[in-house]
Design brief:
Elements: E1 2-11, E2 15-24, E3 29-33, H1 40-47, E4 55-60, E5 63-65, H2 70-73, E6 76-79, H3 91-101, H4 106-119, H5 135-146, E7 153-157, H6 165-180, E8 184-188, H7 192-198, E9 201-206, E10 209-214, H8 216-223, E11 226-231, E12 235-240, H9 243-250, E13 257-261, H10 264-276
Helix pairs in contact: 3-4, 3-5
This protein binds adenosine-5'-triphosphate (ATP).
């Protein structure tokens, strides 16, 4: 379990996290969702030792984690939001280099690299220089690289940006496989359907403050399981706990409408609208 206790951090006057408390459960996939600038990357950077904080402590299984906790860092894999591959090296060389940084060598290193190339459909590109890869391929390589040492805890900061739908779904399967192996995964994404599909828990945050933490199903049920959607100058939504209540309401509408199941995207949209406006 990862625990943030009373974490405070500020970037001058522009952004402030004050006494943040958070538990991230072991073996689960937890998503951090929030609008641009909510603080998702800042939180991930603090938990992975890439950013400092002013106050508080971070614990991995009751052990204090700081920027010098190298033995704990070896158990972590991080996919950064920004592409930070070595673009003058090939796909294969990037994976070899990353593996060596984690102390892998010989046949073990070669086997891991071969495994990762296969998992992310990168075999045919293995000798290409990174600078010649498409954006989606670079993203896949970022994920393959972060998992080269089979980490226990995996941080994915917008890992599937720019990846096509088919590849994205293959990557989702890989994340589910990792979760089923007992890995702890922390995800940020602007693909809300990705978070709905993958997450055990979703954290909604804005301005460095956590507003909710629950399962996708509970967050959806809290808003109302059924949505009526109609257009009257703008798109309108109303949420209902039962289909019967939605039907009664819809009978009073004199416009074209649709009734559908509420999604996590509706939850996120309502949350963001309220917090940003
Ligand atoms: N190095 C920095 N120096 C100053 N301000 C920063 C720095 N990094 C981030 N910020 C500010 O901190 C706030 C939170 O940024 P952060 O990147 O954590 O948000 P985010 O939720 O990940 O956003 P996005 O969805 O756009 O990636 C923003 O207002 C941002 O401008």
């Amino acid at each position: 379990m990862i625990r943030l206790k009373n974490i405070s951090k500020s970037y001058g006057k522009s952004f402030n996290i004050s006494k943040l408390n958070l538990h991230i459960e072991k073996g689960k996939l937890t998503s951090l969702l929030g609008p641009n600038g909510a603080g998702k990357t800042t939180i991930i950077r603090m938990i992975t030792g890439l950013s400092s904080y002013n106050e508080g402590e971070i614990l991995y299984d009751n052990e204090i984690f700081n920027r010098d906790s190298n033995h704990l860092k070896k158990k972590i894999g991080v996919v950064n939001q920004h592409i930070n591959l070595d673009k003058e090296l090939s796909v294969y060389e990037n994976l070899i280099f990353a593996g060596k940084l984690y102390g892998l060598k010989g046949n073990v290193l070669k086997e891991r690299v071969t495994h990762q190339l296969a998992q992310f459909n990168l075999e045919i590109h293995k000798d290409k220089l990174v600078k010649k890869l498409s954006g989606g391929m670079k993203r896949k390589l970022m994920i393959a690289r972060a998992l080269i040492h089979f980490p226990e805890t995996i941080f994915l900061d917008e890992p599937t940006v720019g990846i096509d739908l088919v590849s994205r779904k293959q990557i989702w399967n890989e994340f589910i496989r990792l979760k089923n192996e007992g890995k702890t995964i922390i995800l940020t994404t602007h693909h809300i359907e990705e978070a709905e599909y993958l997450s055990d828990k979703v954290i909604l945050l804005n301005d460095g403050i956590i507003y909710s933490k629950d399962t996708p199903t509970n967050l959806i049920n809290d808003l109302g399981k059924y949505t009526i959607e109609w257009f009257e100058g703008e798109v309108n939504h109303k949420f209902f706990t039962t289909l019967e209540k939605a039907n009664i309401y819809s009978n009073k509408l004199n416009v074209v409408y649709s009734i559908r199941k509420t999604t996590l995207e509706d939850v996120f949209y309502q949350f963001t609208k309220k917090k940003v406006n």
